[in-house]
Amino acid sequence: MANPYIKQYLMTAGPTPLPPAVSQAMAQPMLYHRAPAFVEVYARALRRLKAVFQTENEVMLFAASGSGAMESAVANLVRPGEPAVVASSGKFGERWAELCDAYGARTVHWRTEWGRKVEPAELDRVLAEQPDAEVVFTTFSETSTGVVNDIRELTDVAHRHGALIAVDAVSGLGAVPLPQDDWGVDVVVAGSQKALMSPPGLAFASANGAALELAAAAPGRRFYFDWGATVSVQRKDPPDSPFTPAVGLVQALDVALGLIEDEGLAEVFERHRLLGRATRAAARTLELELFGPDDDNANVVTAIRLPQDLDGAAVPRLMRDRFGITVAGGQGHLKGRIVRIAHCGYFGAFDVVVTIAALEMTLSELGHEVELGAGVAAAQRAFLEAGVPLATPA
Amino acid sequence: MANPYIKQYLMTAGPTPLPPAVSQAMAQPMLYHRAPAFVEVYARALRRLKAVFQTENEVMLFAASGSGAMESAVANLVRPGEPAVVASSGKFGERWAELCDAYGARTVHWRTEWGRKVEPAELDRVLAEQPDAEVVFTTFSETSTGVVNDIRELTDVAHRHGALIAVDAVSGLGAVPLPQDDWGVDVVVAGSQKALMSPPGLAFASANGAALELAAAAPGRRFYFDWGATVSVQRKDPPDSPFTPAVGLVQALDVALGLIEDEGLAEVFERHRLLGRATRAAARTLELELFGPDDDNANVVTAIRLPQDLDGAAVPRLMRDRFGITVAGGQGHLKGRIVRIAHCGYFGAFDVVVTIAALEMTLSELGHEVELGAGVAAAQRAFLEAGVPLATPA
Fold it and tell me: Does A126 contact chain B (CB < 8 Å)?
């Protein structure tokens, strides 16, 4: 059990820490969801979501975990017995395959080794063998490994084969550029609790005309996550919701999206780029191997291989219990082999400084030779060299 | 638009007002859902849910609106092409039929007139004609009309015909007794945002062994709402969740359920009985007709017919915009014909006093003859006659 008297730092890729104004939004008195005071907040949050998705689509808002939005894509797009192509590169990519299986698709699962990107050329080859595939499901930021896939290229490949593409951007949206309309991405799903700096419990799906048409062609076998019903009530003036919305979470989301609007989306992406760059620089200086590719776009979570001379599972445990820093270890077969430092959402330069300092102290305590302060200095240099203000929204 | 400078009172049957301690729970710093500090809260909330459901079942917790838990029952129990009996008596009962249709059931929908209870004898007749029906779906407290159905009797009828029963208790659970295990109710679903005094965004499903077995016999066509997967991870020690839980909402729920535990479930039911009784007494004294039966068990929401000499739709509008009291009007064909005063959850005697006072003032302003204070006095008498403390948990 963590010592509650030690100051706590949340450095996980979801839930991520909340800006104080977002936390406070939820402590307000409850509103009736059909009262004007809430409808105004709801309409503004829906409008602000479009800006973050960089789309003209109606961004559907569900009271659900991010996986609920993924399920909405499968429930609306997959046909029993028909092929569905999943291109995965980690744990969350595999969830697409589980979902397609649950919905009775003939799932064609192209697995890329964890820690590598999905190669567009490989997707091209897979699709050439599946001329009937109507949809490709893949992942933007694979939280289990830190990899950020090239969605623009994967979208082009899918479209060349006449397939739509549905992208899980739960952890990447709002951290790394994914201009949905510019790139022509058919479906993007996301969640509230990562780069969008909001509490967990809201999920989003943005589907373009082609995707909504495919969904409408096979109605049924869904209700809560039905796209047609959701889009039609959200498009009313003022917008409505098919079910009681999670009022407090929507109020929090609206405040968080307002912070992103104030900071500017381009500035938000640049801040994440810098956070990722500084974290990778620190790892390199500490002679720790990155688990994913050393990619200037992989700025959501940095996965670092742990030295083999120590008990890997002890690293996140010690960081939390002794130093109050909560980071995630590895999932699945990566348990005990990596540590994942998140920097998506409400994070600034000194969050990286703190986490790297604690990682150095932890490795040292576990008997690994490490020069205290060396990783911190590398991060400091990366931030100073950027020559930009380091403030996060407040 | 409501005047924000007027003190606001929320008197709707969901979302309902939150006790201050519940609101504050959500303003706390975010926790990682696998950290011991959250796991402890999560385990306790799951344990406390069992007490409110009065069951030994594992009560499944979903990040969703109440309708999500209803969908879980249909997705897990209904078979395409097979009969599913729905016994409805209002708008929320009809949702069961929409869900069964969406999942491809051969839906047999027995509609009771809105404002009346589902008669056990009628269900008996319907089931006699449907010997293959495996499940009956019905409603405990029908929020659209104020009616509370006799679930104990309906359960007995279903069981006599070899069918299971699934009950939507979204608005009634925690307000009116529904001892699941004692009555042998196979499935009870509920939501966080009504009598449980928590923010909207959490949904619950409690399924007994027979229901879980029926679900397990036909896997697939569901993932987010799959009962087998949910029960198996929640039963781990410590309990886990299949997807990122809505951390802040679970913290709020735990605090709210702690308040119910402190007050005592029997006392909570008695408080609701008194609130319902006082509200009905006030309506009678004002010579306003109750929409539902004058039932000492209908203590979730009181639906009152509006006098025909005035514009019914103006009543909730004026109460909100002029007096700051948010009540709900009628839904569907009852729009403009009834007003619904909720008293489920964090409500006390003086909430009824305030609402009846504002209703009197509103009717008077709209030109209906009303003796100001008469309804208030009737409510006061009802509370005094009970001779019990009137405090609500704080």
Answer: no
- Please check whether residue A215 touches B, CB under 8 A: no
Domain end call among B228, B261, B294 = B261
Same domain, B310 and B296: yes
- B108 and B233, same domain (yes or no): yes
Quote the domain boundaries for residue A381: 9-16+264-386
Q: Are A33 and B200 in contact (CB < 8 Å)? A: yes
B36, burial (CB in 10 Å: exposed 0-12, middle 13-18, buried 19+)? middle
Query: Is B387 in CB contact (< 8 Å) with chain A?
Result: no
Q: With an 8 Å Cβ cutoff, is B201 touching chain A?
A: yes
Whether residue A2 lies inside any domain: the answer is no
Nearest to B244 among A2, A14, A28 (CB): A14
Check CB contact of A320 with chain B, cutoff 8 Å: yes
Rg of chain A over all Cα atoms, to the nearest angstrom: 21
Q: Do A249 and B248 touch (CB under 8 A)?
A: yes
How far from the centroid of its chain's Cα atoms is residue B165's Cα? 17
CATH number at residue A63: 3.40.640.10
Considering the domain architecture, whether residues B250 and B277 belong to the same structural domain is answered as no
- SS3 of chain A: helix, strand, coil, percent, to 5: 45, 15, 40
Q: How many secondary structure helices (H) and strands (E) does chain B include?
A: 14, 14
The interface residues of chain B toward chain A in range 252-311, judged by CB-CB distance below 8 A, are none
State mean pLDDT over A260-282: 96
Whether B209 and B270 map to the same domain: the answer is no
Q: Is A94 on the interface with B (CB under 8 A)?
A: no
The CA radius of gyration of chain B, in Å to the nearest whole number, is 21
Assess if residue A85 is contained within a domain.
yes
Query: Number of H helices and number of E strands within chain A?
Result: 14, 12
Predicted complex ipTM: 0.93
- Distance from the Cα of B64 to chain A's closest Cα (Å) equals 5
CATH of the domain at B316: 3.90.1150.10
Q: B66-94: per-residue pLDDT in tens?
A: 999 999 999 999 999 999 999 999 999 99
| B4 lies in some domain | no
Do B102 and A223 count as a contact with CB atoms less than 8 A apart?
Answer: yes
- Which residues of B, range 28-47, sit inside 8 Å of A by Cβ? 28-37
pTM for the full predicted model: 0.95
Domain boundary among A214, A237, A261: A261
Whether residue B195 sits in one domain with residue B294? no
Contact between B141 and B175 under an 8 Å Cβ cutoff? The reply is: yes
Distance (Å, rounded) from C-alpha B253 to C-alpha B345?
A: 12
With respect to residue A341, please indicate whether it lies within any of the assigned structural domains. yes
Q: Tokens 């540590």 identify what position?
A: A339
In this prediction, residue A3 has a pLDDT band, given cuts at 50, 70 and 90, of low
CB contact under 8 A, B65 and A246: yes
- Could you tell me if A240 and A290 lie in one domain? no
* Total domains, chain A: 2
Q: State the alpha helices, DSSP H only, in chain A.
A: 20-26, 36-53, 66-77, 91-102, 120-128, 151-160, 180-183, 209-217, 227-234, 247-263, 265-285, 314-323, 349-365, 374-386
Residues A219 and A232 in one domain: yes
Among residues B192, B144, B112, B184, the alpha carbon closest in space to that of B340 is found at B144
Interface-testing mutation among A67, A204, A244, with chain B (most B C-beta atoms within 10 A): A244
SS3 per-residue string spanning B212-266? HHHHHCCCCCCCCCCHHHHHHHHCCCCCCCCCCCCHHHHHHHHHHHHHHHHHCHH
**pLDDT of A294:** 87
- DSSP 3-state helix, strand, coil percentages of chain B (rounded to 5)? 45, 15, 40
From the list B17, B102, B225, which residue is nearest A220 (CB)? Answer: B102
Whether residues A333 and A187 fall in one domain: no
Is A18 in contact with B29 (Cβ distance < 8 A)? yes
Confidence at A2, pLDDT banded by 50, 70, 90: low
